[in-house]
From TrEMBL, chains A, B:
Record has Oxidoreductase as a keyword: yes
Major subcellular site: cytoplasm
Domain Aldehyde dehydrogenase span(s) in chain numbering: 23-325
Species of the source: Nitrospira defluvii
A Pfam family it matches: Aldedh
Cellular localization per UniProt: Cytoplasm
Name recorded for this polypeptide: Gamma-glutamyl phosphate reductase
Job description of the protein: Catalyzes the NADPH-dependent reduction of L-glutamate 5-phosphate into L-glutamate 5-semialdehyde and phosphate. The product spontaneously undergoes cyclization to form 1-pyrroline-5-carboxylate.
């Protein structure tokens, strides 16, 4: 069976390998992936870059086929009103295929992180010691409906020398299988070992549960998705996990904020793309600035179709605002909804953030130096910003290049995860006969 | 109950809190620990250093009491012949107490890793971005019989701004409780929040299992111990784990090795302290050098009381050597025992290491530049050494300062874990009104 799979890495959906039990299927998949890891880790950068270019070309060449497979997913998709956003994300277009290809070419142009040894130092006994970047190994990525994640993840893993095992949402199965097949076939023709881009083409829930227990073969799981996925992971994973979980992001507008800067930042943080994890969900405003500044902001938010929900004080200042329910604070709306709370001072703001925030992205707007520094120091989050929109917490915006997502874990990588965060390190020692005295 | 614990952080063994169920006990403990994390994270370096000095002084001042408590552990310890090494590790002496105190003072002198922001870079929109080191939060350390681990771990966690929850082996319970009480009382008097050094003074296995599930309160588990501990962790932990697992370390003596250097390194790697995880367990020798070099080495190993077990070829060259059993390769002897295998070339050595090694510490001895570089590149381990003893894979030897152990995990920290590895990072952004376009 393994032999067969090697020759046809992503089996045709039309002829599924469902003769295998889920256990056999997962075992076959992960062994093949692990088998590719050694060779992939030492593949020259030039070969990897050629493979990435070939993958991008492949997507463009197979545009018609990809759109046809995507059409099958869209036909099966139940487009209820509350699933409209999901349906939008699921749809492929010629333009989106172009964007995927462009994204892969961007990754080809980024520096290869492997072998990077930022410094070596010499010990008193004369030996030189340093940390060298090496691949993590085999990374399982479990995600939901956006087919472009398939292309991004495969490209980032390949460039960083990691085998990927991709498991997308069942709604996008046809699209994902087609994308993954094009990518892995193109990569293999360019010299990448078979199995380096592995896609899980069976939709059973059991398959995910089995994958999460393959600690002998998979080194890291990156889940990207909602609460039910995170719950499955927490319950079943015996493999280290870097979560890409929810963002309940706050902006605190200090008494000393520049009113115009504060307005620009708050509107951007809420309105520019409300469905993302780094959009603002709650605005905290110092009471002294609230009186003059808040009514004007609420007016603009309302004009931008934002459903504003305020604390008692907010409602007093802006009578058109709906009173917030208790659970509106600490909630990830992912939509044009904003909770607003007027606070009596920065202590109250910090306490609110510590209590209700998800340690994802937190911002302050102020002209006061000491309070800016205090906020930076005391707020515990993946990214803490002074006088900037929470929407800027992003791999591209931070200059890391493409990212695989924004990690909400504390260990290994916190915040945007680029190529560097997809590596681990080994100590290397250049000696000349040193021993332990 | 929480009030009581705050005032008397480590309850007296004589008056145990066993009125609490294990669940209640663990909940009380972890809530108090979590409560201390915020204040500890922002404690000034000077206060932390004063606390560390006070902790060192405290151990010295309570020497008689610590020795008396240790005596209780030693009396209860069943000193069977195979547990001799364990008994040795369990014993406290005035000298060992001095060493613990000196270790803590060394940690006081190391630079504080917190707030460290190695670089900030400016983005095209003018905002400055960097990564700042912050504490991980609450770290659970689960270890076996050596009481000095209690002092080392408490000091390293305090310096790096982390709350520690320490759970030592039941054999050392009296000693550990006494040490932890002295440390936490001394630290509190110097301004460290109560709960920052928390010790688990109940020996039930169930308590460990409950601890491993406190993912709301504990951010990281560091286990240091044998296979049964690792199994418990794998089964129960819902918290990220950095393992300090076994070391099956190899030295490959290449055809182009300097015979004297090779002999010195191999003897040191096996004999200097065989009970450690970075001692050599298997020697791989190129067949061309084996003929002349191996018999002399075996003679010296035998003189050093090493039980040498060889492959067929080794036994042919050195008739006094015992034939190795199949499972002698890949085994962690932790003792004066060495497996030797003659290989036909470097490929075979690399393959043997990939198959039998535990990715802990691997070394090559060679004068050949290309093979040295290939070994460095291709071997997958926490530390890869050229012409140096495996015993040098150590925080002090590498210049990291004190270490909490040698991580065998791939993520976050691999190899010796010093203060820096006990931190995570947050992105900090200094903006001037930037928004996402």
């Amino acid at each position: 069976m393994e032999q067969d799979l090697t020759e046809s890495p992503v089996p045709e959906l039309e002829a599924p390998v469902e003769v295998l039990t889920p256990e056999e299927y997962v075992t076959t998949l992960v062994k093949r992936a692990k088998g590719a890891a050694g060779r992939l880790s030492s593949l020259p950068t030039a070969v990897k870059n050629q493979a990435l270019e070939a993958m991008a070309d492949g997507l463009e060449e197979h545009e018609a086929e990809l759109l046809a497979e995507n059409e099958k997913d869209l036909e099966q998709f139940e487009a209820t009103p509350e699933r409209k956003a999901l349906g939008d994300r699921l749809r492929l277009t010629a333009e989106r295929i172009q964007e995927m290809a462009a994204g892969i070419r961007d990754i080809a142009r980024l520096p290869d992180p492997l072998g990077d040894t930022p410094k070596m130092w010499t010990r008193p006994n004369g030996m030189q010691v340093g940390r060298m970047r090496v691949p993590i190994g085999v990374i399982g990525i479990i995600y939901e409906a956006r087919p472009n994640v398939t292309a991004d993840s495969a490209a980032l893993c390949l460039k960083s020398g990691n085998v990927c095992i991709l498991r997308g949402g069942s709604e996008a199965l046809h699209s994902n299988v087609a994308i993954a097949r094009v990518l892995s076939e193109s990569a293999e023709k360019a010299g990448v070992p078979a199995g380096a881009i592995t896609f899980v083409d069976r939709a059973e829930r059991e398959v995910v549960q089995l994958l999460l227990k393959q600690d002998r073969y998979i080194d890291l799981i990156i889940p990207r998705g909602g609460e039910s996925l995170m719950k499955t992971i927490a319950e079943h994973a015996t493999i280290p996990v870097l979560k890409h979980d929810k963002g309940v992001c706050h902006t605190y507008v200090d008494v000393d904020a520049d009113p115009e800067v504060a307005e620009r930042i708050c509107l951007n943080a809420k309105v520019q793309r409300p469905s993302t994890c780094n959009a603002m969900e709650t605005l905290l405003v110092h009471h002294s600035i609230a009186r003059t500044w808040l009514p004007l902001l609420v007016e603009k938010l309302t004009a931008a179709k934002v459903d504003v929900r305020g604390c008692a004080k907010t409602c007093q200042l802006c009578p058109e605002v709906t009173p917030a329910a208790d659970d509106d604070f600490g909630r990830e709306f992912l939509d044009l909804v904003l909770a607003i709370k007027v606070v009596k001072n920065m202590d109250e703001a910090l306490e609110h953030i510590a209590t209700y925030g998800s340690q994802h992205t937190e911002a302050i707007v102020t002209k006061d130096y000491a309070r800016a520094m205090r906020f930076l120091r005391e707020v515990d989050a993946g990214a803490v910003l002074v006088n900037a929109s929470t929407r800027l917490n992003d791999g591209y915006q931070f200059g890391l290049g493409a990212e695989i997502g924004i990690s909400t874990s504390r260990l290994h990588a916190r915040g945007p995860m680029g190529l560097e965060e997809l590596t681990c390190s080994k100590f290397v020692v250049l000696g000349s006969g040193q021993i332990r005295e």
